[in-house]
Amino acid sequence: xxxxxxxxxxxxxxxxxxxxxxxxxxxxxxxxxxxxxxxxxxxxxxxxxxxxxxxxxxxxxxxxxxxxxxxxxxxxxxxxxxxxxxxxxxxxxxxxxxxxxxxxxxxxxxxxxxxxxxxxxxxxxxxxxxxxxxxxxxxxxxxxxxxxxxxxxxxxxxxxxxxxxxxxxxxxxxxxxxxxxxxxx
Length: 185
Hints:
Region (Disordered): 88-111
Protein name: (apollo) hypothetical protein
Number of helices: 3
Strand content: under 5%
Distance between the termini: 91 Å
Number of strands: 3
């Protein structure tokens, strides 16, 4: 039996959130306030009333283009940061295809790796090397840690504001009841 392993395909595009228009995450993980891709204001793009003949305003850099413009200076800075991280992680070779030892001698074709080497490993040998690749992935994920912390902080801040508003409403209700009971006496 022949089994080949491939490295996961990396998307060549940079993800942009459709909610806050920032880069590196999607709207499913976003708790930031809405930013319009057309005018940069604090509302969802679907509710934008900007006329087509007026110039767009970027939500990221406030220049005269939509937030999805690939020439945006914020987009270019983010792309450069990602490319630097990729070049650091590419210092260690990771084969794209690993061939297992063939148990059936009649099926003896080999698959070439991208670096033109034929690597023959058993399944257990390939599974042992998974830990090394996982450590590389962890290093790449740490680069996005600051964005994740921003999201978590904003979610916490939103929760705290909501909680404080509810507490203030309850206190005001109690104050009104107390004052009205004192006025009646």
